[in-house]
Write a structure and sequence with these properties.
Blueprint: E1 4-13, E2 21-30, E3 35-39, H1 46-54, E4 62-70, H2 78-84, E5 89-92, H3 106-114, H4 123-133, H5 150-164, E6 168-172, H6 180-190, E7 198-202, H7 206-210, E8 216-220, E9 223-224, E10 260-269, E11 272-282, E12 287-291, H8 298-305, E13 313-318, E14 321-322, E15 338-341, H9 345-348, H10 355-368, H11 376-382, H12 399-412, E16 417-421, H13 429-446, E17 449-453, H14 457-460, E18 465-470, E19 473-474
Parallel strand pairs: 3-7, 3-8, 5-6, 6-7, 12-17, 12-18, 15-16, 16-17
Antiparallel strand pairs: 1-2, 1-4, 8-9, 10-11, 10-13, 13-14, 18-19
Helix pairs in contact: 3-4, 3-5, 4-5, 10-12, 11-12
InterPro entries: AAA+_ATPase, ABC_transporter-like_ATP-bd, ABC_transporter-like_CS, ABC_transpr_LolD-like, P-loop_NTPase
Region (Disordered): 220-255
Protein name: Glutathione import ATP-binding protein GsiA
Length: 475
C-alpha cells in the first residue's frame, strides 16, 4: 500500500509527563503524490503528527490508540523505521540547523543524500541540481553547517531532500526563516516536485499553505478541525502593521550613552566577506530591527555581537565599556550583558532541564548582577504560555513553545542587550503578537535594548529603527 494512513482514531499522549493527550481521534488518508497542508496554532500538534509518521516520538510519548502506516509500513517499530528512513521518507525539521553537522560543508550533506538515489558518477551533478532547485547560492556549498544562517540551513536540508528523492516528504515549517521572495519560490517548488512524492507541509502561515493547491488539514489542541484551506493571506511584503498589532511611529528613547555601539563590523568566512562595515547603536529601551534577504549577513551580525563568532574587524561597546568579540574572552561580569535568542531553539535549551529550572537558573544569574527577575510562572504568562509547561523539558514542547521559553529565559537573565534572531518565525499570528507585546513591555519596564533580526514586516514595525543589509552592506 502506498501513501500515508492514520486511522482508528489515532492519539498520542504522555509528553507532558501527565499522560495528557497530544493528538486525539485523528483519522487521515493521504494518497501517493498528494500534497497536503497541516495548519494550526503553535502547540496544536502539527509537529507531533509529523513525528508519528516518522516514528520519532518524544521520550514518554506513546500511541494510545489507532494505527499509523507509511507505504504500508508501521514507522513506530524499529524494523519499520529502518526500512523507511531516508530512502522512503525525507524530513525537514523545524530547527534545520540542528540537523546539520556543524563541521561538514553544505555540499557534503547534499552529496550524502544523493547517494540514496544516484550512482557515484551522478552524485556531483545531482547535488548541484538539487542546490539550484532549492535556490541555494553555489557560494554557500563550501560553507560548514556552523557558518550558515537559519534560512540557509533550511535550503541545505531542502536540497538534500531533493537529491534523495524520497517517496514521502515531510516539511515542518519549511519557510519560517526565509525572506518573502525566497518563501514564494520554495513554496511553489516543493508542491511541484518532478518525481511526484507524497508531501505534507506543516505551517502556521496561511499564505504558504494556500500555495499547496490541495487539502489543508487544521489541528487545534491535538484535534482535527475543518479540512478546508484557509483564506490566502496577503504576502508577507503586503502585510500592514495591524498584522501583529504594531505601534504607530514609535518614539526612539533618548539616553546620554547607547546600551550597545557597534562600529566598523566586518565578517569573513574564508575568502568570502559576508558583512562589510556595519555600524549602529541602540539606546537603553530601544529596539533596532535588522532586515534583509536570507543570507544577507543578519545572523552573522547577531552571532558576532553575542560572542559566538569572531569578526575580521570592528569594535563592540556595551553599557559604555569595550568588550571582546569572543564570548570565551568575556569576563564573568561581561557575559550576562548580551544574551542571544537564536533560531535553533532546540539547541538553545538544555535537554535535561525543566522549563522551571532553566528560568530559575537564569534568574539567579541576574541576581548576581544586582537585578531582580520575575516569577517563572509570571514570565511564561507574559509570553502566552501555560504555567503547566514549567515542569516540561524541551523535547516535550512544540517548536513555538520552545522559542517562547528561550525568550523568557533570556529576559530572566536581565541583559543589557537581547539579540533576537527570527524569534517569531515559527509562531502563528496570535503567538507572534504576544511575544512582540512582551518585548515592548520589557523595553519600557527594564530598559533592555533589543536587536531584532527578522523577515517579518509586522515585527519590524515594532522597532524604533530599521537597518537593512544587502549582501552584507547596510542599505
Amino acid at each position: 500500500m502506498s501513501g500515508l494512513t492514520i486511522q482508528g482514531g489515532t492519539g498520542a499522549s504522555g509528553a507532558s509527563g501527565t499522560g495528557a493527550a497530544l493528538l486525539r481521534g485523528i483519522d487521515l488518508r493521504i494518497a501517493p503524490g498528494e500534497v497536503v497542508g497541516l495548519s494550526g496554532p503553535s502547540g496544536s500538534g502539527k509537529s507531533t503528527l509529523l513525528h508519528a509518521l516518522l516514528g520519532h516520538l518524544s521520550p514518554g510519548t506513546s500511541i494510545s490508540a489507532g494505527t499509523v502506516r507509511v507505504h504500508g509500513v508501521d514507522p513506530l517499530t524499529p524494523a519499520g523505521r529502518r526500512l523507511l528512513r531516508g530512502r522512503v521518507v525525507g524530513h525537514m525539521p523545524q530547527d534545520p540547523a540542528s540537523a546539520l553537522d556543524p563541521a561538514r560543508t553544505a555540499l557534503h550533506h547534499i552529496r550524502e543524500a544523493a547517494r540514496r538515489s544516484a550512482g557515484r558518477a551522478d552524485l556531483g551533478r545531482l547535488a548541484l541540481d538539487a542546490a539550484r532547485d532549492a535556490h541555494l547560492d553555489p557560494a554557500l556549498l563550501r560553507r560548514r553547517g556552523s557558518e550558515l544562517s537559519g534560512g540557509q540551513a533550511q535550503r541545505v536540508i531542502l536540497a538534500a531532500l531533493l537529491a534523495a528523492r524520497p517517496a514521502v516528504v515531510l516539511l515542518d515549517e519549511p519557510t519560517s526563516a526565509l525572506d518573502a521572495e525566497t518563501t514564494g519560490l520554495v513554496a511553489r517548488h516543493v508542491t511541484r516536485l518532478p518525481w511526484l512524492p507524497t508531501v505534507v507541509i506543516a505551517s502556521h502561515d496561511p499564505h504558504v499553505l494556500a500555495r499547496t493547491g490541495g487539502r489543508v488539514i487544521t489541528l487545534r489542541d491535538g484535534v482535527r478541525g475543518s479540512g478546508s484551506p484557509p483564506d490566502a493571506a496577503p504576502s508577507p511584503d503586503a502585510r500592514g502593521p495591524a498584522t501583529a498589532g504594531a505601534r504607530t511611529a514609535p518614539a526612539l528613547p533618548t539616553a546620554s550613552a547607547p546600551a550597545v555601539d557597534v562600529s566598523g563590523l566586518r565578517i569573513r568566512f574564508g575568502a568570502h566577506r559576508v558583512v562589510e562595515e556595519a555600524s549602529f547603536a541602540i539606546p537603553p529601551g530601544g529596539m533596532l530591527a535588522l532586515r534583509g534577504r536570507s543570507g544577507s549577513g543578519k545572523t552573522s551580525v547577531g552571532r558576532a555581537i553575542a560572542g559566538l563568532l569572531v569578526p575580521e574587524a570592528g569594535t563592540l561597546d556595551v553599557a559604555g565599556a569595550r568588550i571582546p568579540w569572543a564570548g570565551d574572552d568575556r569576563t564573568r561580569s561581561e557575559k550576562p550583558l548580551v544574551i542571544p535568542v537564536l533560531q535553533d531553539s532546540r539547541a538553545a535549551l538544555h535537554p535535561g532541564e525543566t522549563v522551571r529550572t532553566a528560568l530559575v537558573r537564569a534568574g539567579r544569574a541576574a541576581g548576581r548582577q544586582g537585578s531582580t527577575s520575575a516569577d517563572p510562572a509570571e514570565l511564561l504568562a507574559r509570553f502566552g504560555l501555560d504555567p503547566r509547561l514549567l515542569e516540561r523539558r524541551p523535547h516535550q514542547l512544540s517548536g513555538g513553545q520552545r522559542q517562547r521559553v528561550a525568550i523568557a529565559r533570556a529576559m530572566a537573565s536581565a541583559p543589557t542587550l537581547l539579540v533576537c534572531d527570527e524569534v517569531t518565525a515559527s509562531l502563528d499570528a496570535t503567538a507572534e503578537r504576544m511575544v512582540l507585546d512582551a518585548l515592548d513591555e520589557a523595553l519600557t519596564r527594564t530598559g533592555v535594548a533589543i536587536l531584532l533580526i527578522t523577515h517579518s514586516p509586522a515585527a519590524a514595525d515594532r522597532a524604533h529603527r530599521v537597518l537593512t543589509l544587502d549582501a552584507g552592506r547596510p542599505a
